[in-house]
Design goal:
543 residues; Rossmann fold; 3 domains; 6-stranded mixed sheet; binds 6-O-phosphono-beta-D-fructofuranose
């Protein structure tokens, strides 16, 4: 079988020079793309009146329609051959089995274990993680039940950032119709004090519970917000002991205790849960309280259904695989740089932001998993997005007529959570119309009114935006990102690219005279722009 070098399990090689572009299946796709360039998406429909039947997949109440992509049956077959040549199935099994596929951090990748209710045992470092997962869920359930029953807290403030904020925030918003009306959940992430102060100004602090979500419990923004929240609370309540208002979800139990949170109020997570994949863990406690544990379980169950499908369905019928392969086709063969995520559902307002982190932090890489620079193919696309119909009145001009082609995923639910007088039909008519307009285009005498058309879209339809289908939807995108990372031969589970800025921020803070950063090294060399900008801050803040 034609393969790129598989990862040696114990010692990842740093010197594998092979590029995926040398695979026969890749070269075959390059040739195939030349043929496909002569065709358009509308002509594919003309030649195959049943194209939808042949280019969609369904899983329970979720449908992926990829018929409005410039792909033929041959394209899909060739992409599946590429997936096989990249050893996708073996990597997938390694992930589910708990192998350390996050090689740069020497970690297993097991967010899938959190949603696998049939899992009986799975060892990581000679420890069975299943009892730990079940025990934590038990603890979350009993805490959730008591908060919802007692109503001692009517406001929950989640303090976290990145994966400890975006995923939970997105789910809380998406599942608002399932939430307890007497408990409001707020999310504070930015180190900009306006975010925290504005949030706390408008709520009854006596009845507020803070959840500090940080896998590491060292993230600067989160720690700064947590400390300020504690101080503001002490001041507002006129007492030092505000411990009953704080709980934490973290791997760093010691640091959380040092902050003043007792062990019984610390909900553990583990190094095998990546930040952007952590909403399924105790990091999701905020929305778990809001929607109740049964709904939290349904979210996990939906994700598990997608995981099972991802593990078992043949590649050519496998929804996350198809989505991933179409993305590869668009990025590497069609040459499209971006991907739009356009949910036609107000409750999915934060989905594009979560997708941005999921996709760009996972696959925005330019070295292979072996550390070899990638010079002859592109990796993760730029993710942008907004809810429709608002997006239509914002950046869709460019999606229809811009010089760059931006493939888009249109996402909608058939059932509306808050129906009113024909709105939902209008919403869905707009979503469908956009996919058709992008495909068909328009000829015109007036050059300003020409739409080139043949612009690709996927449409993802769920019966209802309930916890189960939301779980399916998120897991679908997680596994899609996995598929692409394997084919691009990169490690989708580290994020070294976010470190440099953090280091320099600390050095600048040291230069600002912040005593918390007194031990930081000097910044290497301060250029004139950086110096001038720092000077402006010093003049307004520090003198
Ligand atoms: O932005 C980098 C990052 O490490 C993310 O991957 C992570 O989700 C976020 O910071 C927050 O990290 P933590 O949960 O440790 O505070």
């Amino acid at each position: 079988m034609e393969n790129i070098k598989p990862m040696p399990k114990d010692e990842p090689s740093q010197d594998d020079p092979s590029s995926i572009t040398q695979l026969d299946s890749w070269k075959d796709l390059v040739d195939h793309h030349k043929e496909m360039s002569c065709t358009t998406i509308p002509s594919l429909f003309k030649n195959d009146p049943k194209r939808f039947d042949n280019f969609h997949q369904k899983l329970e109440g979720l449908t992926l329609d990829y018929s409005k992509q410039r792909v033929s049956k041959d394209t899909i077959e060739k992409l599946c051959t590429l997936a096989k040549a990249s050893d996708l199935e073996s990597w997938r099994d390694q992930m589910f089995n708990g192998d350390r596929i996050n090689t740069t951090e020497n970690r297993a990748v097991l967010h899938t274990a959190l949603r696998n209710k049939d899992l009986e045992t799975l060892e990581v470092d000679s420890v069975d993680i299943v009892p730990e997962i079940r025990g934590t869920f038990e603890k979350m359930k009993s805490f959730t039940d008591s908060v919802r029953a007692e109503k001692k807290y009517t406001h929950i403030v989640n303090i976290g950032i990145g994966g400890s904020d975006l995923g939970p925030h997105m789910v809380a918003e998406a599942l608002k119709p399932f939430s307890d009306a007497e408990i409001t959940v707020h999310y504070v992430s930015n180190v900009d004090s306006s975010h925290l102060v504005e949030t706390l100004e408008n709520i009854d602090l006596n009845k507020t519970l803070f959840i500090i979500t940080s896998k590491t419990f060292t993230t600067q923004e989160t720690m700064c917000n947590a400390r300020s929240a504690k101080e503001l609370l002490q001041k507002a309540l006129g007492k030092d002991d505000v411990g009953e208002h704080f709980v934490a979800a973290t791997q760093n139990v010691e640091a959380a205790q040092k902050f003043g949170i007792s062990e019984d109020k610390i909900f553990p997570i583990w190094d095998w849960v990546g930040g952007r994949y952590s909403l399924w863990s105790a990091i999701g406690l905020s929305f778990c309280i809001s929607i109740g544990f049964d709904n939290f379980q349904k979210l996990l169950d939906g994700a598990y259904a997608m995981d099972k499908h991802f593990r078992e369905a043949p590649l050519e019928k496998n929804i996350p695989v198809l989505l991933g392969l179409i993305g590869i086709w668009n990025r590497n063969f069609e040459g499209f740089e971006a991907l739009g995520i356009i949910p036609y559902d107000q409750y999915l307002y934060f989905l594009p932001s979560h997708m941005q982190q999921l996709d760009m932090e996972s696959n925005g890489k330019s070295v292979t998993r072996y550390g070899v620079p990638i010079t002859d193919y592109e990796t993760g696309p730029i993710i942008l997005g907004q809810t429709g119909t608002d997006a239509q009145h914002a950046f869709f001009q460019s999606v229809h007529q811009g010089t760059d082609i931006i493939p888009c995923d249109f996402i909608f639910a058939l059932k509306c959570q808050k129906p009113a007088r024909g709105h939902h039909y209008k919403l869905l008519a707009n979503a469908i119309a956009q996919t058709k307009a992008l495909m068909d285009g328009q000829e015109n005498q007036n050059p300003h009114k020409i739409f080139s058309g043949s612009r690709p879209t996927n449409t993802i339809v769920v019966d209802e935006l309930d916890p189960y289908h939301l779980g399916m939807l998120i897991a679908m995108y997680e596994q899609k990102v996995f598929v692409q990372g394997i084919i691009w031969n990169i490690n989708s589970f580290d994020q070294h690219g976010v470190e440099l800025g953090k280091v320099l921020a600390k050095q600048i803070l040291r230069d600002f005279g912040d005593k918390d950063f007194a031990n930081e090294k000097d910044a290497t060399e301060i250029d004139s722009s950086t110096a001038a900008l720092m000077d402006m801050v010093v003049k307004t803040h520090l003198r």
